[in-house]
């Protein structure tokens, strides 16, 4: 039987809950999620738990923050003057922005709050520090195509999306 290993494309339905049991994200009612195993497309703790599994397997996986979206780092919270952001940008708490990192690469940053003429930004992922509770059902498994391997992600049943 084929089982999950590096360079395979896994299709799964999942529900992610927090410690309180609140649903944070779910594929139920949507297309299942496809990812390329071994490429870091999903959080490390879940990727490890899926290795060796087969289609039809259902599992409940508890992922600690270190193996999820990382621990929170309060140095990642920074205040900038509102005028440093584009004037037409909607400043809604929770939205994700892009910032230029030290090496010129784009890094994600989340808008936490607007306080007067200052904007509080958070470089921590909103789920940093959180224990993640996944319920997963494996619904598909196949070899990745060469194109998927060279891109480092799955391309899905509907062709190439970027
Ligand atoms: Zn691609």
Give the fraction of residues assigned to helices.
under 10%
How many angstroms does the end-to-end distance come to? Answer: 32 Å
- Over all CA atoms, what is the radius of gyration? 18 Å
In DSSP terms, counting alpha (H) and pi (I) runs of 4 or more, how many helices? 2
Strand count, sense and closure of the main sheet?
A: 5 strands, antiparallel
SSE string, helices as H and strands as E: EEEHEEEEEEH
Word description of this protein:
The chain has 162 residues and is mostly beta strands. The protein has helices at residues 44-50, 146-151, and strands at residues 8-17, 23-26, 33-36, 58-63, 77-81, 96-100, 106-115, 118-122, 132-143. The strands form 2 sheets. Strands 1, 2, 3, 4 and 9 form a 5-stranded antiparallel sheet that branches. Strands 5-8-7-6 form a 4-stranded antiparallel sheet, with no helix packed on it. The longest helix is centred in the N-terminal third of the chain and has 7 residues, at 44-50. The structure holds zinc ion. Zinc ion (ZN) binds at residues 151, 153, 155, 160, 162. Zinc ion is lined by residues 151, 153, 155, 160, 162.
Short description:
The chain is mainly beta. 8% of the residues lie in helices and 38% in strands.
């Amino acid at each position: 039987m084929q089982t999950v290993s590096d360079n395979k494309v896994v299709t799964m339905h999942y529900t992610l809950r927090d410690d309180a049991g609140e649903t944070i994200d779910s594929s139920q009612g949507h297309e299942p999620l496809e990812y390329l195993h071994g490429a870091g497309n999903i959080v490390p703790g879940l990727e490890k738990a899926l290795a060796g599994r087969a289609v039809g397997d259902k599992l409940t996986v508890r992922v600690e923050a270190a193996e999820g979206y990382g621990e929170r780092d309060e140095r990642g919270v920074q205040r900038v003057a509102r005028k440093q952001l584009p004037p037409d940008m909607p400043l809604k708490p929770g939205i994700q922005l892009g910032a230029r990192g030290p090496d010129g690469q784009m890094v994600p940053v989340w808008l936490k709050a607007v306080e007067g003429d200052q904007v509080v930004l958070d470089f921590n992922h909103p789920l940093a520090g959180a224990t993640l509770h996944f319920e997963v059902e494996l619904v598909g498994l196949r070899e990745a195509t060469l194109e998927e391997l060279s891109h480092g992600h799955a391309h899905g049943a509907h062709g190439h999306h970027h």
